[in-house]
Design goal:
The complex is a heterodimer of chains A (538) and B (246). By secondary structure, chain A is mostly helical. Chain A contains 23 helices and no strands. A 6-stranded mixed β-sheet of chain B has the order 6-7-8-3-9-10, with helices on both faces. In chain B, strands 2-1-4-5 form a 4-stranded antiparallel β-sheet. Classes of the chains: A mainly alpha (538), B alpha/beta (246). The interface between A and B is medium-sized, with 28 and 31 residues.
Amino acid sequence: MSAAIRDPRVRAGVAAIAVIVALIGGAFIGLAVEGAADFARALSAFDAYYVRVAIFTLWQAALSTLLSVAPAILVARALSRHPAFTGRGLVLRLFALPLALPAIVAALGILALLGRAGYFAGLLSWLLGGDWPGIYGLSGILVAHVFFNLPLATRLFLEALGTVPTDQWRLASQLGMGVAPSFRLIEWPVLRSALPAVAGLVFMLCVTSFTIVLTLGGGPAATTLEVAIYQALRFDFDPARAVALTFGQIVLTVASIWLLSRLGADPVRDANLGVAPPRRFVTVQATERAINIAVIVVAALFVVGPIASIIVSGLASDLAGLASQASVQRASLTSLGFGASSALIAVLLSLALVAMRRALETMRRSRRRSLLEYAADTGAGFVLVVPPIVIGAGWFILGRHVGDVFLLAPFMVVSVNAIMAMPFVVRAIRPAHDAAAERHDRLAASLGIAGWNRFRLIDWPSIRRPLLTGFAFAMALSLGDLGVIALFGSDAVKTLPFLLLERMGSYRTSDAAGLALLIAALCLGLMAVADWSGKERA
Amino acid sequence: MTDSTQNTGVAVRLADISFRYADMTMRFDTVFAPASITAVIGPSGSGKSTLLNLIAGFEAPQGGRVLIDDIDVTDLPPSARPVSMIFQENNLFAHLDVAANVGLGISPALRLTAADKDRIATSLSRTGLAGKERRLPRELSGGERQRVALARALVRNRPVLLLDEPFASLGPALRQEMLDLLVSVQAERKMSTLLVTHQPEDARRAAGSIVFLEAGRIVAAGDRESFFAPDGPEAFRRYAGSELQD
């Protein structure tokens, strides 16, 4: 270890971990200090309202999971039974879109479609024989969560179905398995082994969902812990209650992760690869074909709806007028600046962690992994477990003692978004980095190329594409995020999502639609860059 | 099956078949010897697997007909053809035990009667797997997994058996053992058998006749003796190289 610490790669990695620990640890200190200072008050926050909010948090997440995952099984199965129809690629691309779309933009799209004045309001009023009250509260939250998670779950299930060896499909069709036996014997076993992980992931995303609940949830009846933390800090200014709520959110998150890891145990998996080319040999009867087509079309329409309404209502708004507003111009610059800084930090942190992990792995040879290597490897992913709102709340409470808490805004937004994007960036660059290191390590050592020269001449050319992928992805995440900025935003510092939230709050619907389109275009553009640079290999 | 075809075997005929795959157009026009083992040999990409896929019905030819026992099966789905196929790997469902994997050959929905279970037990003991009914595939060796696949082919009792490099991932001794098992089972059932292999040695040990493929055509066909004779087919001799000299 003493030799390891002299390696610059290890030093950089340790520094990166220190930054992350300081950011998260500082938040927890803030929370702990506040809780201890006013323990009685924090304790009294555990009242009936608290229990109601906690139960609603779980209830909406459970319903969202059920409504996303169960149909996703049908959709994934339908897509896997028809591996070659025209438009299949388009459907899969469409299903990747919600993930790239900021939550606030999707929320607006759903309101533009199903809100009180949405495109479907007239039809729904007529159908219900009364005034359509608009989609708010639990139903709004559920629709939005399904919009995000049904496509996600479908893609994950489809991936699982893709692991069924081609030979088994050939075998099934030779043995004459019908729909039911091939579901029971081939499809269900892989789906079932993927199910806990997929359902757990969706549940986690819904338990920690902030923006959707903030914008679509209505009043105290449809509030989750995260939104309650935000309200306690922004509106009631009740830090003790915020601490109590944060405690609940952490307990809930840790419990769901524990459950997830218990459920995620993977029993039977045969790791052999099919030798046959990736072609399917499924014989599908006419009835099943019709049902499958219906399932795919309904799912696709469900995803297309909000996206189309973002585009249509956005284009209908006064885009030129919007662009000439000083507030919009300032928010755009702020967003781009914050996004780029946070992406840069995310990339640097990730690079440091990846390089350190590789360096430690090479040094130890066959000995056990050190704690440090573990921290750079699996540990990095644990950042995702800490909700940004919790970090934000901690620093908000801490900063209040120092001075104007809103002055922290740029620092908080940039750093929290950077570490939230970090695990994804690590995933983008690590394979290429490690493969390049594997190839070049010994040659570089024998030629004596090290340090900056090595990075410039050897590492950089092989990882710049993945770095671009990570950067674009991190910037998109940061640009669309409405978490920390919701806490720290003020007249002095506004990002585009924050501005959008304000315009929605003051019912300037046309402005909101235009802003949503702008944010969506920026994020999708960045995601397209990430996608392109991630795929193209020289 | 007790019909007469069991004793004399059925003929597998590819009549003027053409099949395009990527840049290559394959053409087959041939009859395979009934009730014996024919080795299908050729370099990678010569169309060996495609040949089997066409007979099994996993691929549809652009032109020509597939006839089995003089019956046109070109438009039949794989399950309706009198054919069983054994792949190199993935012949078994990982989460089903040995008996169930064999049972799928009787009922694809796994509805098995007591008589069916007897048949499963019989065929398992024929392939040397007695007592391993409850094992899962991951608890078996590579050779044992292929024995299960062979046992399933036995309970299916189809007159045509196709094997796509079934023993390629096994060591030499085990491969010989499996070939011998295949030969003795085939001798009992008289299945018309096509064995795709890379190894001329496999053909020498197990096959009655041999076809040699190159670039989607059968460029040589004949009985084993003629292939391994000093004046055997030129293309085959080039492919086999030094192996023929011992």
